[in-house]
């Protein structure tokens, strides 16, 4: 039986998108220009410009893809977070993340609420989406390509992992507050506390149980696929019992990434998860590439082009970019004070490129029927484009003028690039 023309067209578009995604990655490695800017542009051409694919029909499906993407990003981010590294060796990174993510989120929420007369909780949801995230898919390869010292690359890499986690936690917090049955502040806080406590406890209990199961099955085929099944089960169980599925997933990833702590706590345990972690890293890179490629094309497909509002949205994007750069500059000044990293402050500030996490959260907000979410989606797209432009020109400026960060060592930032090799997408 011959396939219909529509099916043939679908597979032709899928093939073209994958080839373009692969070509975009090669182009990024050669030029430093992020590939997903090109993918968003391709989606805009296929959707709003030429109407080859209807983007609005994809919104329900894209919500599922966005949730799947977020689960994978958070799980692997959790695996990258070596608990001892974060809390013992990376105090400056924690200061950077706290002073960038939290103030910028609150500032964006308060300012947009006052300027645009938006509901405060919804404005804070927008703040949590774009407030302080940087994408490792761009900033890590660029920082390595500029031949920076190990301490600076580690600083930028670990920040990119941590700030996405903080953004997701804040996003789920504000969405839970908005969806709370009791609109009062105390009622919302009660709902949030319940979601978080259940999510953390279930994540901890399930992660230990799953690790014990994986220890017995680690030498079997398809163990990494089975592991992903356990990740999805963790999310589903936690959500169905009233907890935060994303937080449980994060805890699972953190416990699995720091499994050696269990060996030190429980004397009889002799866990060895290193081979499984390597398998998961390889699997994650391939899946992240596929998800990222289609996701950014889909983001372009559902992008709304309204000639009357293009300049307004662009102005909003520039306004939010200025806020982000102001708080990033402040955070970097404080976190690198009295440190060899201080010589690279300008570069660290310009490494502000946003990517998959804010795009995913914006889609989830649309899928959760947040009233202002369609507006957020357009604004987030502009912010993603603008922050990547700043990062790209910043890297070109550094490469051209040769103003690299001095090669110096700092005891508290021991290079941990092996633990960050599974880059967050």
Describe the structure.
The structure is a single chain. Helix content is 75%, strand content 0%. With 425 residues, the protein is mostly helical. It is globular, with a radius of gyration of 21 Å.
Supply database-style keywords:
Na+/H+ antiporter like fold; 17 helices; mainly alpha; 425 residues; single chain; disordered C terminus; globular
Query: Within the CATH hierarchy, at the fold level, what is the topology?
Result: Na+/H+ antiporter like fold
Mean pLDDT: 78
Number of strands: 0
How much beta, percentage-wise? Answer: under 5%
Number of individual domains: 1
Number of H- or I-type helical stretches? 17
**Biggest β-sheet, characterized?**
none
Alpha carbon gyration radius: 21 Å
CATH class descriptor: Mainly Alpha
- Helical proportion? over 70%
What low-confidence regions span 5 or more consecutive residues with pLDDT below 50? 404-425
Q: What is the end-to-end distance?
A: 40 Å
| Coarse structural class | mainly alpha
CATH architecture call: Up-down Bundle
- Shape descriptor reads globular
Order of helices and strands: HHHHHHHHHHHHHHHHH
């Amino acid at each position: 039986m011959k396939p219909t023309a529509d099916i043939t067209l679908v597979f032709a578009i899928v093939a073209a998108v994958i080839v373009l995604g692969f070509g975009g990655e090669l182009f990024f490695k050669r030029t430093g220009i992020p590939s997903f800017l090109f993918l968003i542009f391709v989606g805009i051409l296929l959707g709003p410009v030429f109407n080859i694919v209807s983007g609005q029909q994809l919104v329900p499906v894209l919500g599922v893809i966005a949730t799947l993407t977020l689960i994978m990003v958070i799980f692997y981010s959790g695996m990258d977070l070596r608990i001892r590294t974060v809390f013992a060796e990376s105090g400056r990174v924690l200061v950077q993340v706290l002073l960038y993510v939290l103030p910028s989120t609150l500032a964006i929420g308060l300012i947009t609420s006052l300027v645009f007369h938006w509901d405060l909780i919804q404005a804070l949801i927008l703040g949590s989406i774009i407030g302080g995230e940087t994408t490792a898919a761009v900033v890590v390869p660029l920082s390595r390509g500029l031949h920076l010292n190990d301490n600076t690359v580690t600083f930028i890499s670990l920040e990119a992992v941590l700030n996405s986690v903080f953004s997701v936690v804040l996003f789920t917090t504000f969405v839970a507050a908005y969806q709370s049955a009791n609109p009062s502040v105390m009622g919302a806080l009660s709902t949030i506390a319940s979601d978080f406590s259940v999510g953390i406890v279930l994540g901890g209990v399930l992660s230990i149980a799953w690790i014990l199961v994986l220890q017995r099955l680690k030498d079997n085929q398809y163990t990494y696929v089975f592991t992903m099944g356990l990740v999805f089960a963790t999310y589903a169980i936690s959500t169905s019992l009233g907890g935060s599925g994303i937080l449980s997933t994060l805890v699972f990833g953190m416990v699995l990434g720091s499994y050696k702590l269990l060996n030190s706590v429980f004397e009889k345990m002799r866990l060895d998860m290193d081979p499984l972690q390597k398998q998961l890293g390889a699997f994650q890179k391939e899946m992240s590439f596929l998800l990222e490629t289609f996701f950014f094309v889909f983001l372009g497909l559902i992008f709304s082009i309204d000639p009357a509002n293009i300049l307004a949205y662009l102005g909003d994007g520039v306004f939010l970019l200025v806020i982000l750069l102001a708080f990033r500059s402040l955070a970097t000044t404080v976190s690198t004070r009295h440190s060899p990293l201080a010589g690279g402050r300008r570069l660290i500030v310009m490494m502000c490129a946003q990517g998959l996490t804010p795009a995913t959260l914006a889609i989830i907000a649309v899928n959760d029927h947040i009233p202002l979410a369609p507006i957020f989606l357009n604004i987030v797209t502009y912010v993603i484009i603008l922050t990547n432009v700043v990062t790209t020109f910043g890297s070109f400026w550094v490469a051209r003028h040769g103003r690299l960060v001095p090669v110096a060592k700092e005891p508290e930032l021991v290079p941990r690039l092996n633990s960050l090799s599974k880059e967050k997408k």
